Amino acid sequence: MQMKPVLQTAPALYGSILDTIGNTPIVRINRLAPEGVELYVKVEAFNPGGSVKDRFALAAIEAAEASGALKPGQTVVEATSGNTGIGLALVCAAKGYPLVVTMAESFSVERRKLMRFLGAKVVLTPAAQKGTGMLAKAEELAREHGWFLARQFENEANADMHSRTTAREIVDAFGGQGPDYWVTGFGTGGTLKGVSRVLRAECPKTRIVVAEPDNVPLIQSGIAQERDADGRPASHPMFRPHLMQGWSPDFIAKLAEDAVSAGAIDAFQPVAGNAALQAARDLAAQEGIFCGISAGATFAAALEVAKTAPKGARIVAMLPDTGERYMSTVLFDGIEEEMSDDEIALSRSTPGARFDNAASAPVASAAAPTCKPEAAEMVDEIVAQHPVVMFVLEWCEFSWSVRKLFAAAGVPYHAVELDAAAMQTDNLGGDLRAALGVRTGVPTIPQIFVGGTHVGGAKETFDGFKDGSMAKRLNAIGLSFDDSKTANPYGFLPGWMHPR
Ligand code: PMP
After folding, report:
1. Which atom of ligand 1 approaches the CA of 295 most closely?
2. Element of type H or E holding 399
3. Do the bridges between strand 388-392 and strand 447-450 make them parallel or antiparallel, or are there none, so unpaired?
4. Residue 6 burial (10 A CB sphere; 0-12, 13-18, 19+)
5. Cα 428 from Cα 148, distance rounded (Å)
6. 87 within ligand 1 shell (Cβ under 6 A)
7. Which one of 42, 51, 53, 137 is the catalytic residue?
8. In 3D, which of 454, 452, 453, 461 has the Cα closest to residue 492?
9. Active site includes 294?
10. Please, which residues have CB within 8 angstroms of residue 37's CB and are 6 or more apart in sequence?
11. How far is the CA of 150 from the centre of ligand 1 (A)?
């Protein structure tokens, strides 16, 4: 089929980050596709929040603004496996609404941090209470505090947005005919309901395949979802913990149910956890497409569909999010920080910049250190004036670790940032550093003084916290500290700096 040119003409300027939501690329799979079919993926990681849920986030807020359900400055609250929260956090940040998210503690740590980085508050709920627990908490918070609840699991704005955007993008990319197969999983079912109804209306020959975790056949089981009098779902009997974060919560959401009753599903494709992980890894390493676990699962389902699809069939799989929010999860098992044996062998295959070769270390200057007398006087004065003084570099890891250690202990200190911009005038920082070198006899930074006495650098400080000598020094000048926070001083260094 006709491909888009590599460089498309796109609007050069966007009025807001929100205008970049949607219109994600549909990309041909070249190396992993079996012979005889055209396999495509819709890469939702191209959304500004890195997932398909940016679409819902924008739709939910704009629909509520239009209906008056959301007032200017009102707090938004939502239960989410993370991506909806990240999407809502960026939409709320751009539009000026406070956001509170409830999320089960079992979803990846990256999600929490991303939401908090975007300015949201994240209230964790016990994993044992599953999706229904985080949902109930969000409802309770909304009720008690008068907040706007986004209700992704039943909000029609969710499905409507997918009909208006995702479905249009898919249908139009295939010249109005749609693909032969469209493969998706479901969480809220917003994608499923919204896209499937457009495909049914406009592309009757498109077969819709729904993927589920192989151990959690919620819809495929045919067991109806129980709800209480208020429509609140009970935990579904077929639910088991599974790997595909964002798919199949422990209940069938209203929007997913609507899609089932509308006859939107032609076939089910169960996917094993290991197949999902392998597919995500293969997409990254063999196609350069970096996506999350549910995306790997959807792609694994599409590969199964491809096995029995007629020759020439065009298959589209949804890839809901980026792989970057799975670094702390099993997806990255076996991806180490340290060099592997192969990488060490590569390092040693040439002489430069190696760890096992002293010759590659910088050569230290042998000249005796000298300094300006006025700088030496300044160092003496600073050391005399403050109970705890540290001479540091603004962004050096050792300096930061020592600062964090004293902060954790609750011990106030005076820091002299030798390389700060303000210290560059007349090379003041350089002169002080030289004077410090003369006074201490060591050229390295940081250097720490307690009660006017030189303690040493980062190592001596860490060791002092460990062996009790720092406690003695501080006690001698009337300072006590909380040693429960400083039991592992070396833990304040970043991982790559820990002594080997
Ligand atoms: N995958 C991931 C990673 C998700 O976060 C979600 C949303 N919960 C989905 C898939 C499912 O999308 P939808 O809610 O539209 O069914």
Report:
1. 1
2. helix 397-409
3. antiparallel
4. exposed
5. 55
6. no
7. 53
8. 461
9. yes
10. 306, 309, 311, 312, 313, 314, 315
11. 15
From 112, 131, 132, 114, select the one nearest 122 (Cα to Cα). Answer: 112
* For ligand 1, atom 3: residue with the closest CA: 246
User: Is any ligand 1 atom within 6 A of the Cβ of residue 292?
Assistant: yes
User: Is there a contact between 47 and 24 (Cβ–Cβ < 8 Å)?
Assistant: yes
- pLDDT tens track of the chain, all 500 residues? 557 655 566 668 999 999 999 999 999 999 999 999 999 999 999 999 999 999 999 999 999 999 999 999 999 999 998 999 999 999 999 999 999 999 999 998 999 999 999 999 999 999 999 999 999 999 999 999 999 999 999 999 999 999 999 999 999 999 999 999 999 999 999 999 999 999 999 999 999 999 999 999 999 999 999 999 999 999 999 999 999 999 999 999 999 999 999 999 999 999 999 999 999 999 999 999 999 999 999 999 999 999 999 999 999 999 999 999 999 999 999 999 999 999 999 999 999 999 987 555 455 556 788 999 999 999 999 999 999 999 999 988 899 999 999 999 999 999 999 999 999 999 999 999 999 999 999 999 999 999 999 999 999 999 999 999 999 999 999 998 888 899 999 998 887 676 54
Q: Whose CA is nearest to atom 5 of ligand 1?
A: 246
Give the C-alpha separation, 129 to 148, whole Å: 23
Domains, the chain, ranges and CATH?
17-49+157-222+243-332 (3.40.50.1100), 53-152 (3.40.50.1100), 373-497 (3.40.30.10)
Q: Is 245 in the pocket of ligand 1 (CB under 6 A)?
A: yes
Q: Give residue 247 CA to ligand 1 midpoint distance, Å.
A: 6
In single-letter form, the type of residue at position 364 comes to: A
Respond yes or no: is residue 254 known to be catalytic. no
DSSP class of 243: S
Q: Dihedral angle at the C-alpha atoms of 78, 79, 81, 82, nearest 10 degrees?
A: 30
Q: Which of 51, 294, 399, 401 is catalytic?
A: 294
Tell me which residue has its CA closest to atom 4 in ligand 1. Answer: 246
Among 60, 37, 48, which Cα is nearest to 183's? Answer: 37
Nearest residue (by CA) to ligand 1, atom 9, is 246
Closest CA to 268 of 280, 255, 259, 278: 259
Atom of ligand 1 nearest to the CA of 187: 16
